[in-house]
Amino acid sequence: MIDPLHSSVSFAVRHLMSKVRGRFTDLEGRIEVGDSIGGCTVEASAATASVDTGVGMRDDDLRSERFLAADTHPRVSFTSTSVTGRDGRLAVVGELTIRGVTREVRLDTEFLGLDETGLQGEPRIGFSGRTRVRRSDFGVGAATAGGKVVIGDVVDIELDLEAAFEGATPA
User: Fold this and answer.
1) CA distance linking residue 56 with residue 77, whole number of Å
2) Which of 94, 118, 106 is CA-nearest to residue 6?
3) In sequence order, what DSSP letters do the residues of 47-114 get, joined into one string?
4) Other CB atoms within 10 Å distance of the CB of residue 23
5) What CATH superfamily is the domain 4-164?
6) What is the spatial order of strands in the sheet that 101-115 belongs to?
7) Fewer CB in 10 Å around end: N or C, the chain?
8) Model pTM?
9) Burial 61-82, CB ≥16 within 10 A → b, else e
10) Is-contact 163 113, C-beta < 8 A?
């Protein structure tokens, strides 16, 4: 199971000439490790109502129907369809669902290691990944003011996941 206290899903999107960064604070999911890299699977989701950019008014806007539609689409989710790679570098391909729209994305992922004893004696495993998506591909609203685009279409997403580990170390 993904440890939400030691994991994060964050994003960055252009706003005029700067970038706005945020994160989702309510995460859940699981990473299953198979006998080989190809046998690994990932399922993860984040509550859209937990979006946090540090600015309450902006967060409320992001939760609105204009953007994430948290009332009607309470979760953003990812389910892997394939995992390939070697030497600690992985390509995790899967289906990302935002606002009820599902698109295939590729997470460029780094295996951060396995700690067989953890801090409380339980085995732990870690991964870091990133991808880039277009808001428009998921029906997430455009933001314009006075005829100019205020918020960019491209969103960079980063994941840092730590999970309780059960199973064999993949070869």
Assistant:
1) 23
2) 118
3) EGGGEE-S-HHHHHHHHSTTTT-TTT--EEEEEEEEEEEETTEEEEEEEEEETTEEEEEEEEEEEEEE
4) 16
5) Lipid/polyisoprenoid-binding, YceI-like (2.40.128.110)
6) 27-32, 41-47, 75-86, 89-98, 101-115, 124-134, 151-164, 8-15, 18-24, 51-52
7) C
8) 0.89
9) bbbeeebbbbeebebbbbebee
10) no
For 91-107, give one letter per residue: b (16+ CB within 10 A) or e. Answer: ebebebbbbeeeeebeb
> pLDDT for 8-39, tens place per residue?
999 999 988 899 999 999 999 999 888 888 88
The whole-angstrom separation of Cα 69 and Cα 35 is: 39
**Torsion angles phi and psi, residue 37, rounded to 5:** -55, -45
Is residue 86 over pLDDT 90? Answer: no
